[in-house]
Amino acid sequence: MKADIRVALVGNPNTGKSTLFNALTGLNQKIGNFPGVTVDKKIGYTQLPDGRRAEIIDLPGTYSLYPKSRDESIVFSVLAEKATELTPDLVIVIIDATNLKRNLLLYTQVADLKIPVIIALNMIDLSKKAGIDIDINKLAAKLGVPIVPVSARKLEGIGELRTAISYANKFALQQESIDVKGIAPGIIESISKEHGIDNPYFSLQLAHQHETLKFLTPEQSERIEQLEKEHGFHSQKAQATETIARYNYINDLLYDTVKTPVTAHDESISNKIDKILTHRVFGFIIFIGVLLFMFQSIFAWSEYPMSLIEGLFVWMEGGLRNILPAGPLADLLIDGVVAGLSGVLVFIPQIAILFAFISILEDTGYMSRVTFMMDKIMRKVGLNGKSVVPLIGGFACAVPSIMSTRTIENWKDRMITIMVTPLVACSARLPVYTLLIALVVPNRNVWWIFNLQGLALTGMYVLSLVSAIIVAYVMKFILKARERGYFIMELPVYRMPRWNNVLFSMYERSKTFVLEAGKVIIAVSVILWVLSSYGPGDRFTNIEKKYQQPQYTQSMKPDSLARVISTEKLENSYAGVLGHVIEPVIKPIGFDWKIGIALITSFAAREVFVGTMATIYSVDGDADRIDSVQDKMRNAKNPNTGGPVFTLAVAFSLMMFYAFAMQCASTVAVVYRETKDWRWPAAQFVYMTVLAYGAAFLVYNLLK
Amino acid sequence: MTLEQLGVGETGIVKEFTDLEMSVKLMEMGCLPGESVRVSRIAPLGDPIAIHVSGYQLSLRRFEASTIILQ
């Protein structure tokens, strides 16, 4: 879409920036990635009063132009890089009126880049309520920029902001804030001269950030490095000098424009809430209660929409089978593409619900309290207070949980969280566990109240959490930190969640998942379909010929004949052949080639195990009925020993394998999406497979 | 005396920092020399702590607080 003016939205975290973005653009927005990095780029459009169209770019929230995370480093590069498709004509700096001082730091930095600026003074209603008296006209006159008071949450002042955008100047008219040249005169002059820059602050930023800026060539960056040595430029010292100078300027500025009461009203309420929510006893009880409620809801509320989606696809498959002429094309479309699509869409309810909760927790300010309470424990194992939610979310599904790790700013903490989250027992493992436990663990009580089967299942869940923590601890020593870990974090005032934002976040995350991870999942499901429905040479035609002979067609009913055929076809398919190929490898952990087939097909998703078992053991009726699968598996005999295939050792070995192995195409896809590097999902796949094989081997040989 | 040694409810005024890298981050967040800081609460497990500075609440680890020297 073509726009007449491009506007970048910049501001501190927790200032209502995304609320303002949503208020300006409505549903008229699209999400992508900034080139080369995993940072969500949100672009929206808004109609100005004079009929022009403005394109609004939402930049990640940051406290200053000096980045503390990779997300934040986007801000300066978008503002600074000239003549790209993102270079803004105008910057709106959104400022929280209840916290002017800290918010103005970023404003003065952006203003010194000499891009035309408008200030959106957000939460003006709250600041009035808190008794903060701001002389907006005087402040605007002193700064030399328009200030528009808004309340994004109440949709007040949005029209005025649009008008201000339409009247925006082409030239920056803001007042000088601090003496930038005085901070590092030598290097600023050299860089300005060599790069032909007339803005001293831009030159200073180049000196600070040249190593990470993509628009500088390696030679240019090398040259700046050399200039730094010549002039004795020390980045951190210069930054300290600059920050102090800026706050002095801000203090002067606010001295006769703003009157703040001693304690703000909101804050005292917030303080009371904090006394309970971060209490040493109640704090943890409430937190555990919130988590339990969250995951209960993810299970309970997603059940109905998920079965609805599955039902819809079953109906679609039936319909397509009736319309399309039977043949390989119809099979590919129905069993490969449509089945893959249903495998993607079925995750939407869980993703949407988890992100509804996460966005409520973040919006209200509770998430930062969770981090505050959990940081000490989580730090010990190489994680971060913020890793708690993805890890617990892993009990429902690793896919949305891995997407939610973006709230973790520290790169190393985030990577470790991503790497261990798939170990947590997700809901797809549940059918596998219940099937196998019911098969080998007797249904009786020990010590009166504990059911043995229940204990086994609980054990699997505890094991998953313990293994995730141990692996995280090991990774803490393997991964090298890219940045020094620190925990300087704002604890925002408690606020009511903005329901619009909650809805946006549900919609956005689901859409991202479907578009990005969906491709990989469908591709894998098509490949698996090919593997299980084609066989080498003319094996399949031979099977069909064999069962056309009268001794079969006359003695067997058509549906049981079809079942026998499909079982034999699966055995002779590429997947079946692969099962035979990997048999020597999986024999030491107690699996035969039939289980091998299930392991291969389960790569698409773990719950496929039950369905594959049903096909292999040719179950009567509905494959979803676990009882019937169970009976068939119980009766399966090992041709070598004459005993049952599924002994206690084999069943537990299988459970260990499913507990640790990365058998989930969706997770692989989402890890790739979040890390933008195939080496992460590859490393994860390898370590989890090794762990799975090792655990299965150990358990099989102990129980054999 | 450092910020780490303050108890809940106690106030101090920032004098200087012992760690340059940390000081840059802290100053950006409004925790500057001359600024008054008050410990508002300590996390249930004793670390991190929350302080009131520049009109808002900031949380930081004990180690980080120990790099802030008070007047």
Question: Could you please describe the fold and organization of this structure?
Answer:
The complex is a heterodimer of chains A (704) and B (71). In chain A, helix 12 (282-323) packs antiparallel against helix 14 (348-364), helix 29 (648-660) packs antiparallel against helix 31 and helix 30 (665-675) runs antiparallel to helix 31 (679-703). Chain A contains 31 helices and 12 strands. Chain A has a 7-stranded mixed sheet with strand order 2-3-4-1-5-6-8, sandwiched between helices. A two-stranded antiparallel sheet of chain A has the order 7-9. In chain A, strands 10-11 form a two-stranded antiparallel sheet. The longest helix of chain A is centred in the middle third of the chain and has 42 residues, at 282-323. In chain A, strand 2 (29-33) and strand 3 (40-47) form a beta hairpin. With 704 residues, chain A is α/β, with parallel strands linked by helices. Chain B has a 5-stranded antiparallel sheet with strand order 4-3-2-1-5. With 71 residues, chain B is an alpha+beta fold. Chain B has helices at residues 20-28, 62-65; strands at residues 11-17, 36-42, 49-53, 56-60, 68-70. The longest helix of chain B has 9 residues, at 20-28. The mean pLDDT of chain B is 92. The termini of chain B are close together. Chain B has a single domain, classed as SH3 type barrels. Classes of the chains: A alpha/beta (704), B alpha+beta (71). At the A-B interface, helix 3, helix 10, helix 11, helix 15 and strand 12 of A face helix 1 and strand 4 of B. Chain A: It comes from Mucilaginibacter terrigena. Chain A: InterPro entries: Fe2_transport_prot-B, Fe2_transport_prot_B_C, FeoB_GTPase, G_FEOB_dom, Gate_dom, GTP-bd, P-loop_NTPase, Small_GTP-bd. Chain A: Belongs to the TRAFAC class TrmE-Era-EngA-EngB-Septin-like GTPase superfamily. FeoB GTPase (TC 9.A.8) family. Chain A: Probable transporter of a GTP-driven Fe(2+) uptake system. Chain A: Mg(2+) 2 binds at residues 23, 25-26. Chain B: GO terms for molecular function: transition metal ion binding.
